[in-house]
DNA sequence: CAGTGAGCGAGCTTCCGCTTGACTT
């Protein structure tokens, strides 16, 4: 009997059926050993050591101390038992940095020594597996070293910086390479929104009486462009060097009246062909984004639904950064397309997609229907599960369909000294869009008639509306996950939990599916930016990845890298950092957020008062600020039952989770 | 004399990334 160890139980089941007799396939469920989270997790002889809290001996070449993870003792015992009777043990954890590390930890725990045999494969088919198990290789210790370096750096940074926040702010605050960079991105967006001053401009449109009619927009007067949102700075001022006409209500009204008496003469018609390519199959981040936008589902819900679909064999693995499809999947997708839309819907060759994110490890393929590509209606699913499966199914098929082609028409008209413009796109070959249209509807897009230069049409029904330039939008969870991926912050398995952490700490909250930064979040980000700017720098991770690659190649050692980043950079910054409570200017008001005695307060007019719970920076206006200062603030959140409800269980949970003393006290108090 | 309360001190919090259930609410 030969033993093959993989990470996921669902995968183990599938591989077991493919390899058949003579093989035992078991799952280790991810990492089995890790640095100790707390002192108590350490073996007794190490408890007194000065680096016990860290679990890393910086002075001994950053030697890590590993313990078996909570809840993994039984898994290890079972694997040990299985390995004992096996003639051969193959370590088949995922083909990436973390997977290599898992293989090494397993080799140590199972006592396989230097002879440990590692296998990897890119797809789960009989031929790929037979090929893989026939050619095991030794563990790649350079790659393991790269993972260990990543782990040690994250521990040093996280456990090094978090205590700064405990002394400056209090409570169980946290900071880390990923969560703090993410918080910084959100905080910057929030700040620029708060500081944003909208500018007003006018948009004048008029109906063109052609057949069929269409609407044209005034773009210039006497060849000087009309101001649009793009003409203004975020401070609401006209951009320098911009020559535009700014209308006011009166002028807009005059223009409106003028246009309705005029004829529009076609000055130019431009027709350009357009081609739209289908979007790539889903990765973790693009699935989150699409499900968030189309199905209005939050990140946690999508993960839960997708996990269930995966476990029941409907879709492939859900934590992936690769958009590529295996050959088997391409064939199945093409067959499904042909069956439903006929052979003309297929391009000659299957499309292959490559990742666009810099740090992709591509250990798995895209998220797609698994097995035989069950048609959604026949899958026996319902509700959100069905909706999500259909989304994945349609996107996968669409990715293998023909491009959509058509033409974009752009018409310029003149009415006296007024220049008008209209544009519209018409798809001729609908291609993949019959199944999955990823274009957001644009209000200016319309079907345009064929017109000739020199033709003139009556103008009627002119409308003038005042518009305001708008601040950069908040991120939805989906959009933010995409941003994290693009910036290389975090991994597919952690995008969701990073958002959870930021919410649990009270730095970020979700309102109407959008991510808002709380006053505490702004304070934490402000403090970190001042004291440890390295940590919130979004390029920090990108540079780390490059260095880890060099470690994996054997061009750099762990000690060299960590000496530079830790001893030479982060550690001195932590040493220097001030412990004074942070303050942040409220961008849109004459006030500051500050921390006093561990409480978030707002200071204005020489007074400082605690902020009501649940109050977000955007809720603060001249009026609400005055109410807060006078103690007359009546936020609905304070009186609402929900807020007290939400608080109580958190407290009980904390009591229950803390030491035995606390529960004894609790027991004594109860009748 | 018993019970209460202020004040003090000690101990705790925390990272990222890989996997699922087994638990509540």
From TrEMBL:
This is DNA topoisomerase 1. SMART domains: TOP1Ac, TOP1Bc, TOPRIM. Residues 140-574 form the Topo IA-type catalytic domain. It catalyses: ATP-independent breakage of single-stranded DNA, followed by passage and rejoining. Monomer. Its EC number is 5.6.2.1. It comes from Deinococcus aetherius. Transmembrane segments: none annotated. NCBIfam families: topA_bact.
């Amino acid at each position: 009997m030969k033993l093959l160890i993989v990470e996921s139980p669902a995968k183990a089941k599938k591989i077991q059926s493919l390899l058949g007799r003579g093989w035992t396939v078991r799952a280790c469920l991810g990492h089995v050993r890790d640095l100790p989270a707390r002192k108590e997790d350490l073996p007794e002889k190490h408890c007194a050591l000065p680096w016990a809290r860290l679990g890393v001996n910086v002075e001994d070449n950053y030697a890590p101390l590993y313990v078996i993870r909570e809840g993994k003792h039984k898994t290890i015992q079972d694997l040990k038992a299985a390995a004992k009777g096996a003639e051969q043990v193959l370590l088949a954890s995922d083909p990436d940095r973390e997977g290599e590390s898992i293989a090494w930890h397993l080799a140590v725990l199972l006592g396989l020594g230097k002879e440990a045999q590692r296998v990897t494969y890119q797809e789960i088919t009989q031929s790929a597996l037979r090929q893989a198990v026939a050619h095991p290789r030794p563990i790649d210790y350079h790659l393991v070293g790269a993972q260990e370096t990543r782990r040690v750096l994250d521990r040093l940074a996280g456990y090094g910086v978090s205590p700064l926040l405990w002394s400056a702010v209090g409570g169980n605050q946290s900071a880390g390479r990923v969560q703090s960079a993410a918080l910084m991105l959100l905080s910057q967006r929030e700040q620029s929104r708060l500081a944003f001053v909208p500018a007003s401009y006018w948009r004048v449109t008029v109906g063109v009486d052609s057949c069929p009619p269409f609407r044209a927009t005034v773009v210039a007067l006497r060849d000087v462009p009309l101001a649009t949102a793009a003409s203004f700075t975020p401070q609401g001022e006209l951009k320098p060097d911009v020559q535009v006409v700014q209308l006011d209500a009166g002028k807009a009204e005059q223009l409106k009246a003028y246009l309705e008496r005029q004829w529009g003469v076609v000055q130019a018609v431009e027709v350009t062909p357009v081609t739209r390519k289908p979007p790539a199959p889903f990765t973790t981040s693009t699935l989150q984004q699409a499900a968030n936008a189309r199905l209005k589902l939050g990140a946690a819900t999508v993960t839960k639904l997708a996990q269930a679909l995966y476990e029941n064999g409907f879709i492939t693995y859900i934590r992936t950064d690769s958009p590529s499809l295996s050959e088997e999947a391409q064939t199945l997708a093409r067959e499904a397309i042909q069956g439903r839309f006929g052979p003309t819907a297929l391009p000659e060759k299957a499309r292959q997609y490559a990742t666009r994110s810099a740090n992709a490890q591509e250990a798995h393929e895209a998220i797609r229907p698994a097995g035989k590509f069950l048609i959604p209606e026949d899958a026996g699913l319902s509700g959100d599960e069905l909706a999500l499966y259909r989304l994945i199914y349609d996107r996968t098929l669409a990715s293998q369909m023909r491009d959509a082609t058509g033409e974009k028409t752009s018409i310029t008209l003149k009415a006296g000294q007024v220049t008008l413009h209209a544009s519209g796109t018409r798809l001729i070959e609908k291609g993949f869009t019959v199944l999955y249209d990823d274009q957001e509807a644009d209000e200016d897009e319309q079907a345009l008639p064929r017109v000739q230069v020199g033709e003139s049409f009556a103008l009627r029904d002119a409308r003038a509306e005042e518009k305001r330039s708008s601040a950069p939008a908040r991120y939805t969870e989906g959009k933010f996950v995409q941003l994290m991926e693009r910036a290389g912050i975090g991994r597919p398995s952690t995008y969701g939990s990073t958002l959870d952490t930021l919410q649990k700490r009270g730095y970020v909250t979700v309102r109407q599916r959008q991510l808002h930064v709380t006053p505490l979040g702004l304070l934490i980000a402000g403090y970190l930016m001042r004291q440890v700017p390295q940590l919130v720098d979004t390029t920090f991770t990108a540079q780390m990845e490059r260095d880890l690659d060099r470690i994996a190649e054997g061009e750099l050692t762990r000690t060299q890298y960590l000496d530079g980043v830790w001893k030479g950079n982060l550690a001195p910054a932590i040493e220097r950092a001030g412990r004074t409570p942070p303050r942040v200017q409220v961008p849109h008001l004459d006030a500051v957020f500050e921390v006093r005695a561990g409480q978030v307060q707002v200071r204005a007019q020489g007074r400082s008062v605690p902020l009501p719970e649940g109050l977000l920076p955007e809720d603060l206006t001249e009026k609400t600020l005055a109410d807060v200062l006078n103690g007359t603030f009546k936020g609905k959140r304070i009186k609402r039952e929900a807020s007290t409800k939400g608080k109580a269980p958190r407290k009980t949970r904390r009591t229950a989770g803390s030491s035995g003393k606390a529960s004894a006290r609790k027991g004594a108090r109860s009748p």
